[in-house]
Fold this protein.
Amino acid sequence: MIAISSQACMFDALARARRIDAAVYLPAPDFTRALADAARRGAVVTLHVPGTMPENSQRARGLEARVRELRAAGVQVVEERERIEHLKAIVVDGNEAYLADRNFARDETLVRTDEAGAVEAAIAGLPAVSDDLVLTGKAGAQELETRLVRDAPAGSEVFVVSEYANYSPLVRELLARAGELHERVVVGVGGIGKPLEHKALEALAAHGVDVEIARIAEKGVCVGDCAVVTSANATVGQPSMSEWAARFDGAQAAAVHANLAAAVAKGSARKLDQMLE
């Protein structure tokens, strides 16, 4: 089973958990408090985080502060140095798993799966792949998205949301099929000032792709009645990042599209050319 879930379900699970195994890149404040509360009431809580963030960066300082808070509450924090922990996953009591695309922040798309053993293994650094769920390195997660665009029938509507985007396999596939698909790409504001991201977005726009910028960090692709949600950005490099991606069809895919569209609307999306004026 793999299905779209909610923050309420995830926090309810954390509140009753006896054991929590988790991995995040930078734990969101509410999520940090929930893990700390669980540890204080006696749950065994283990959290894997990156141990290789750029020294003295804003993200590194934010992570250090949250790690201190968690350790003070009794959470066992494991700093991963052999791989970049970007997975964003939780396993509750060994049988209930949740995946997030934004570090379990507010209003994001959450996925629930009963493949808890596979998620637990991925948290420990062991890859797992099934038809609809990929728990592996960055390339494997990106391939699930890219395949959705590659296999799309001509004339399909394609909706892509990513916090960052440059010349990744997904972006190259969008460029290759720009003349036969109706493509809309929305990326976060953080990437617009980076030369490689800027160049890739301008290339998409030059190929007729509708490119927009918004205050978003969601990551997903919707094509027709199919959708993929992922923790992976549409960027090249950093192959050691641990990631996940999940595919949905029918009503579940429609729910993914609705969640991504709502995030884009809330993020005040603007056309790329307006941002460059």
